[in-house]
Amino acid sequence: MTDRSTKDMDGPSIAPCGTRDDRVEPRLRGAWQAWLSSLATDAEAATAAAHLYGELPGEARNAWLEALVEDVPALKVPPIAVYGPLLAVEDDAARRDRICLAAGFALGPITKVDCALLGAATGGIRLAALVIPLYLDFVRLLVCRFVKNRGFDWVRQDPIVSAVDAPAAGSTIDGVDLYVSSTEAVVDELAHAVLAHRRMGRALPQLLCDCSDLFSARLPSA
Q1: Integer Cα distance of 210 and 9 in angstroms
Q2: How many other CB atoms sit within 10 Å of the CB of residue 89?
Q3: Which of 104, 123, 134, 200 is deepest in the core (most CB within 10 A)?
Q4: How many CB atoms lie within 10 A of CB 132?
Q5: Residue 175 per-residue DSSP state
Q6: Comparing C-alpha atoms, which of 186, 168, 187 is closest to residue 178?
Q7: Residue 162: CB partners within 8 Å, gap ≥ 6?
């Protein structure tokens, strides 16, 4: 994490808790609200918010959400900009419902891909990258390295990426050059790798389980 992100994170670590010193509170609140506003356009700040929130215990997450009830109406950005990073990492059903209600938005099943890319290396190794729309101008990046008849070597993700920074034709990941392919072709290759992975008795990476709706039409029941 860069120094800028660390500094940005100073605001939310203090401001939600508030302070009774009237000489200090306006400055802290102003910094907190400026940081919240940056989440609409700054993928690094949004990622930092998701990471920070995700590390908090339940009581502190509730305090964060309580602070947003007061501060979000004062911002000039859509609520989803502020709540989106939290929704991306929240796993408690009640808090997810609360966030969705406040944001007026829900992250539905992953069924749409903005861009699908493929690349090949020696030994039958394939690299696939899926650029999945998230909210506003942010996307989620899922990258898989696999061999079709053997399964997956690894699956990784960047949960929040600015759309303009997402991989495109000619991008390189782990030394593999990528080209744009159709979503159907890439998902078909991944589906074959999923079957091979299962046949070898290996547990499917959770990140792929999260994308099960993409494969549902191509895979038999487990």
Answers
A1: 28
A2: 17
A3: 134
A4: 20
A5: T
A6: 168
A7: 43, 137, 138, 139
> Could you tell me the two tokens for 9?
């994170």
Tell me, rounded to whole angstroms, the distance of Cα 135 from its chain centroid: 10
Whole-number Å distance between alpha carbons of 39 and 48: 9
Q: Structure tokens of 186?
A: 């890439």
Neighbours of 211 (CB within 10 A): 24
Q: Find out whether 156 and 104 touch, Cβ atoms under 8 Å.
A: no
Write the pLDDT tens digit of every residue in 97-138: 999 999 988 776 677 899 999 999 999 999 999 999 988 999
Write out pLDDT tens, residues 36-74: 999 999 989 999 999 999 999 999 999 999 999 989 999
19 pLDDT higher than 60: no
Q: E strand or H helix at 63, and its extent?
A: helix 58-71
